[in-house]
Amino acid sequence: MPLLLPTDYHPSLSVRDTEAAIVFIRENFQAILSEKLNLQRMSAPMFVEKDTGLNDNLNGIERPVDFDMLANPGHTIEVVHSLAKWKRLALKQYGFGMHEGLYTNMNAIRRDEELDNFHSIYVDQWDWEKIISKEERTTDTLEITVDQIFSAIKAIEHEVAVRYPGSVYHLPDHVCFVTTQELEDRWPDLTPDEREVEITKREKAVFLMKIGDKLQRSGKPHDGRAPDYDDWQLNGDLLFWYEPLQTRIEISSMGIRVSEESLKEQLKKAHCEDRAELPFHKMLLAGELPYTIGGGIGQSRLCMLLLGKAHIGEVQASVWPEDLTKKCEAAGIEFL
């Protein structure tokens, strides 16, 4: 997405007030979320060993930041892209029971990210995961969970509005559920990005389902998804229409995780069958991991959305190219 610079932009909060609001949003939202989804906060790694297969491969082309370790020679350590697979393993290792889950503060580096108003090389999100039964691997379970997350976002919106009146971007009251195939059928001549903008502009809040598999008309996926965590038939993105920038913003990516059967199918479709020999994947295929639902909720993006900010750099400290920084400064956008 190209850099969007709103005209006559004047943030309603100073940098120091923005920092205070960020703390308020983060501390209170995670408490609301954990109560609604029955989650316990757990510590999480910033890096994992490459050979475990635990790192998120994203679209398969992004390069993880890696390094070696003096005390453990011969092993490559990777900074996580996300904790999508680690969480499922942690639920087993820590003895979580049916309908119990965990959440953690996940910090990642994605050095190949294309920078714009919503994307930084630094990623901070609430990563969460919850155990469900195999019978609950359904669209109904997915939609109920999305509604719970949406209600948590609406609850923190209300609390922020009370504390910072006049500084909150108000969100819609309901979320619309739609599939990627329905969007392609409706707007076959638009690109996937254009379809997302169009549906979100009309509905204001959208959960876009079934991301990763090929669509019927184009024969191409709507968007990339790694084949070894989300079930492509039971996942989706939570999108909001963002009036200040006249576009959509993604707040969460989530889904019911792969079963033994769907993992085999998706590895084959993605030509990644060699991953079946990695330790995590062996455990999953052997039925040794619980069935789960999980995802990530962007911390900086949620703060940006609720506070009406024009750029993610206003709510997180990162590194930006000099030309981008100058353009934003000229538009009244002050980076942390």
TrEMBL record:
Enzyme nomenclature, EC number: 6.3.1.1
A GO MF term: transferase activity
UniProt domain Aminoacyl-transfer RNA synthetases class-II family profile: residue ranges: 100-321
UniProt entry tagged with the keyword Metal-binding: no
Keywords: Amino-acid biosynthesis, Asparagine biosynthesis, ATP-binding, Cytoplasm, Ligase, Nucleotide-binding
GO CC entries: cytosol
Biological process (GO), any one: L-asparagine biosynthetic process
InterPro entries the record matches: aa-tRNA-synth_II (IPR006195), aa-tRNA-synth_II/BPL/LPL (IPR045864), AsnA (IPR004618)
Record's catalysed reaction(s): L-aspartate + NH4(+) + ATP = L-asparagine + AMP + diphosphate + H(+)
Keyword set includes Ion transport: no
Subcellular location(s) of the protein: Cytoplasm
CDD domains: AsnA
Pathway assigned to this chain's UniProt record: Amino-acid biosynthesis; L-asparagine biosynthesis; L-asparagine from L-aspartate (ammonia route): step 1/1
Pfam families reported for this sequence: AsnA (PF03590)
Family designation: Belongs to the class-II aminoacyl-tRNA synthetase family. AsnA subfamily.
Protein known as: Aspartate--ammonia ligase
Lineage: Bacteria, Bacillati, Bacillota, Bacilli, Lactobacillales
